[in-house]
């Protein structure tokens, strides 16, 4: 695990705060963002770096990367990058989590193979592997339903700033409740496949912008009395299949559009930026939760959610 220097940790806080302020100011944005996937071609390499940074810093901490990636570029006048661009640059986050947890994944894979060969279905690695597999099914099922049933997902009310604000507030309250009532005693070695199912169901809520995949899974982990760092660690492992599938599906659609240089370069730069900042965020959050609680994220989410709602009300009047 990498150790962040105090100056790096302060920079991390600062960049996250800036992203949050941009989200909070979103109702005042003059620019109206495009929501079609063709908007990918209009991003330059610098914009892709910024979007990758936003993705990387917010994918694994419980404040919703989808919300930030929708609103931040609109506030900056770049337009909504859309579902496709957002999902594709998440591949950088996947590369980061695979790199960070490679030893864990290797151990789980080898352990599952050994357990199956010996019919030892009570082994820890087997239970973890089954939990991750079963926990991935809900978000795949509901994600496919949304893609099939909602014709224009980018322009649907589900992606409005009002929904983002409401989801952020609700999840802030749930995180606060889980933090309050959890015993924080169950370790990583005590995880079961039932935990994977429960956290997987919670993960599917992240299809609603503003919920946050890591936020919903970490919150559910705390409700299961997991240690904070354990909840985050399993949340990251559980997210690998879901984020990978979403990114590959959207990447296929982008390829089908025709990959000109205007599309390829921003995508590559965005993925690299996302991967770098994701790795920093993963290392920081696990280190942070080993010693501290999640209240900073509760207040962050509650604050910008209420601010967005207040801004919408002021603008409407």
Explain how this protein is built.
There is one protein chain. By secondary structure, the chain is an all-alpha fold. The protein is built from 12 helices and no strands. The radius of gyration is 19 Å and the shape is globular. The N and C termini lie far apart (50 Å).
* Beta-strand proportion: under 5%
- Structure classification: mainly alpha
The count of β-strands is 0
| Global shape | globular
Radius of gyration: 19 Å
Q: Can you tell me the residue ranges where pLDDT is under 50 for at least 5 consecutive residues?
A: 1-5, 7-39
Mean pLDDT: 83
Helix content: over 70%
Largest sheet: none
Descriptive tags:
single chain; 317 residues; mainly alpha; 12 helices; globular
Summarize the structure.
The chain has 317 residues and is mostly helical. 73% of the residues lie in helices and 0% in strands.
